[in-house]
Design brief:
Blueprint (H helix, E strand, L loop, with lengths): L7 E5 L2 H5 L5 E4 L11 E4 L6 E8 L4 E8 L5 E3 L8 E2 L1 E5 L7 E2 L13 H9 L8 E16 L14 H6 L11 E5 L10 E5 L3 E9 L16 E7 L5 E4 L7 E12 L2 E5 L3 E9 L2 E8 L4 E11 L7 E8 L4 E7 L5 E9 L16 E8 L1
Parallel strand pairs: 1-17, 11-12
Antiparallel strand pairs: 1-8, 2-7, 2-20, 3-4, 3-8, 4-5, 5-6, 9-16, 10-11, 10-13, 10-15, 10-16, 13-14, 14-15, 18-19, 19-22, 20-21, 20-23, 23-24
Length: 371
């Protein structure tokens, strides 16, 4: 039986954040504790395009993260410093060993047309008390399986805060633009031009999440009925990606093992930039930018505006600021005699995803008198 301590799920950004465009907030792999059975999934950056699959080795009692490649459907194990170790979207659990419910699928009242999501939904109905989100590990064999691998989901967003873009980017249709791959014993006789045949590799080790409120877009696309989001790798570790389990060419043959994990607590990681220590002395402006949030942040703009005169503004760009880090600035800013009001604003155009309630500290003002 599950232990009472429960399973905690940490979400760095969200699926809604991801599909709306370019994300400048990143979670380094070092922040994901991989000792034990860690449920998770995510994506890599817009530069190297790919998805993350979390696999658990019961022999070593450790979890590994595999990157699934968009251009080939192949995979490789991620390690610190290999260039794919910062993630714009990721979610991961605390150690879930001995806390999952192994489902006896023979006791479920199934029908011949059940898909993977139907099996998981029926399994969840047997668990009490209920949870908002459930982690899932499943080993299964497919007659045929269509997968996709995220490509350019994190690119090209110029109007991240526009309502129109948010609405357009939040549905499952985003996956239609991705390269599709199919795995089956034989090449399908009728293959859609969007689907590339990868080969015979039908045994899969999968991990994902079932959200009872998918419209929120925490771990699934924000669309009614899109409860299950699951990634996986082939048992022979040749291929991996996002399981397009609802696709018409995906046909589940059998489930070897299904374990469901109720999530007891959800933690959201976000960004919180702050301007502090603003001073002006003898023509030198000094200040600090601090990352108070839980994610590393990249490509940060900083405006320095004297007397509300934007034609005289200075503009700085900070390439990277890790979570908890602080960067100090000191630059010449000559001012004529008289009273002045200076503004320093970090992320002035709102490129960084922060709750509106946390944005007040993005700006600091200083009143000074020059003799």
């Amino acid at each position: 039986m599950p232990q009472s301590k429960g399973i905690h799920l940490t979400i760095a950004n969200s699926i809604v954040d991801l599909v709306q465009g370019d994300i400048k907030e990143h979670l380094p792999i070092e922040r994901i504790p991989l000792q034990g059975d860690v449920l998770g999934m995510g994506t890599t950056t817009s530069i190297d395009n790919g998805e993350l699959a979390f696999t658990y080795d019961a022999a070593t009692e450790e979890t590994s993260i595999y990157k699934c490649h968009a251009n080939s459907g192949g995979i490789h194990k991620i390690s610190v410093g290999d260039g794919s170790d910062h993630f714009p979207y990721a979610c991961f659990s605390s150690d879930a060993r001995e806390q999952g419910y192994t489902i006896d699928i023979s006791k479920l009242s199934s029908t011949d047309d059940w898909r993977l999501s139907d099996w998981i939904k029926a399994s969840i109905a047997t668990i009490d008390p209920p949870a908002q989100i459930y982690g899932v590990r499943v080993r299964c064999h497919w007659e045929s399986l269509v997968i996709t691998v995220a490509s350019k989901l994190c690119m090209g967003q110029r109007n991240r805060n526009s309502a129109a873009q948010a609405k357009a980017g939040s549905g499952a249709a985003i996956y239609d633009a991705l390269q599709h791959y199919v795995l089956s014993a034989d090449v399908p006789s009728e293959l859609d031009s969007k689907i590339h045949y990868l080969g015979h590799a039908q045994d899969w080790d999968c991990c994902g999440f079932y959200d009872t409120e998918p419209e929120i877009g925490r771990v699934t696309v924000a669309q009614a009925g899109a409860n299950l989001h699951i990634h996986g790798v082939t048992v022979d570790h040749r291929f991996g990606g996002h399981l397009h389990h609802e696709h018409g060419n995906s046909h589940l043959a059998r489930i070897e093992e299904l374990v469901v994990y109720p999530i007891t607590n959800i933690i959201h990681l976000g960004s919180d930039l702050s301007v502090d220590g603003l001073t002006w002395n003898a023509g030198i402006l000094s200040f600090e930018v601090t990352n108070l949030g839980g994610l590393d942040v990249s490509d940060i703009g900083i405006d320095i505006v004297p007397d509300d005169c934007y034609s005289a503004r200075e503009y700085l760009r900070l390439p990277w600021l890790a979570a908890g880090a602080c960067e100090s600035f000191s630059l010449p800013l000559p001012l004529p005699p008289g009273a002045h009001r200076l503004l320093v604003a970090v992320d002035p155009v709102g490129d960084i995803i922060e709750p509106e309630s946390d944005r007040a500290n993005n700006r600091a003002w200083l009143d000074c008198n020059v003799p």
